Amino acid sequence: MMSRPEAAPVPGCGICGLIAQIRAGGFEDFIVELDRHFVILGEAQFYRGYCALLMKSHCTELHALPPDQARGAFDEVLLVAASIASVVRPLRLNYENLGNQEPHLHWHIFPRFEDDLMRLEPVWMRPPAQRKVTLEEQDRRALIGELRAEINRRRRF
Ligand SMILES: [Zn+2]
Hints:
There is one protein chain. This protein is α+β, with helices and mostly antiparallel strands and 157 residues long. It has four helices and five strands. It has a single domain (30-154), classed as HIT family, subunit A (2-Layer Sandwich). 34% of the residues lie in helices and 17% in strands. The chain has a five-stranded antiparallel sheet. Strand 1 and strand 2 (37-41) form a beta hairpin. 25% of the residues are buried. The site of zinc ion (ZN) has 6 residues, from helix 1.
């Protein structure tokens, strides 16, 4: 449910492009819509349960958001993180808000597991060919369904 008008998409922004796909119903890895973010299953499923939160409006710096909006956005990061932890039971979670390649605000939440030989390193140190694991269709749909159910169960807004 959208509670307020959204900022216009910015031409050339990859994340605005993804959001347009999600809004059109054409994005397979869509999990759930929250007040401030769309949540998707990320493509690097070597880290099973990895999700990204895409801020609905094209904002580029956390510190430039009005404080109540920044706190509200962070509440959603925590909601998704707790849900991922509950579904995939990782050793720990990594949180990343980078914006170097796509300045539009977004968060990566990566579950890290005991059996990852590179678990002391940031996820980006693992070569793309290794981390960009695509799950089998049935498994992917089941995981998306579990994450969606857990987020909806926990959300209070
Ligand atoms: Zn954008």
